[in-house]
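FAQ

Q: What does a record look like?
A: Structure on top, sequence underneath. For example:
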């Protein structure tokens, strides 16, 4: 009987120079915080594509850049510092969560030393946006978070989605990992939250420096657009409240 082919496979496209890199996950999620942060890190560090994850369960989308089609789910790597990133141009569907997690554990786990997962959570107020707390899979990772001055999550909770599946798989397989949970805008992409998780958590954990001025500019532009929309709504409501002259009942 022929064994079943895995639903998700990793295709290497280059050699990885990094000796024991940190894997930083940047898959689409709430506020696109992980995607925005990891895109910035990959671009700024000039990481090279190491490979791609392919599966029939992923959306049939043709992603492209610089005039060339590329895989939607990609892994990048570099050695200054030793970093790997996991990114996707498309949301990961629920029926691919477990297979993707197994692919990372079985085909990538020997390539990285530890994993850091990023997840956005709805902010209850503007003041709460950008707040970061950490969760660890081992006591050593918990100590790392504390030494980096990252507040530990005090309340009970759970993380769902593909990030929850990945960190749970690492926990069950005793793979060193940490989760950085950042409060983000509940309605829009939040580059400000992405900037916060880079500056206040990833930089001290990974010991690198990332220029986040571009994210600050994007956050300010989104804020200006939100204010314009609010003003337009107020004007529209004001016009509706004005009495209509020349009409009687």
């Amino acid at each position: 009987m022929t064994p079943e082919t895995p639903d998700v496979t990793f295709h290497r496209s280059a050699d990885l120079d990094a000796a024991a890199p940190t894997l930083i996950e940047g898959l689409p999620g709430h506020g696109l915080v992980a995607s925005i942060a990891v895109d910035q890190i990959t671009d700024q560090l000039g990481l090279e594509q190491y490979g791609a994850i392919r599966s029939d369960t992923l959306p049939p989308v043709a992603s492209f850049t610089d005039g060339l089609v590329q895989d939607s789910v990609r892994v990048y790597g570099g050695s200054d510092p030793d970093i790997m990133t996991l990114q996707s141009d498309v949301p990961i569907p629920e029926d691919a969560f477990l297979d993707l997690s197994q692919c990372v554990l079985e085909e990538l786990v020997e390539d990285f030393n530890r994993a850091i997962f990023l997840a956005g959570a709805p902010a209850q107020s503007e003041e709460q946006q950008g707040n970061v707390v950490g969760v660890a899979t081992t006591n050593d990772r918990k100590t790392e978070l504390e030494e980096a001055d990252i507040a530990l999550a005090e309340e009970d909770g759970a993380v769902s989605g593909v990030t929850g599946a990945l960190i749970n798989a690492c926990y069950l397989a005793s793979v060193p990992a940490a989760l950085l949970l950042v409060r983000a805008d509940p309605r829009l992409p939040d580059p400000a939250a992405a900037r916060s998780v880079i500056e206040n958590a990833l930089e001290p954990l990974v010991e690198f420096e990332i220029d986040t001025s571009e994210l600050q500019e994007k956050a300010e532009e989104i804020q200006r657009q939100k204010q314009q929309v609010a003003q337009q709504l107020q004007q529209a409501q004001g016009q509706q409240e004005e009495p209509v002259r020349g009409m009687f009942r």
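Q: Is there anything notable about this one?
A: The beta strands are 8-12, 22-26, 48-55, 63-65, 68-70, 73-79, 82-88, 114-122, 132-136, 177-184.
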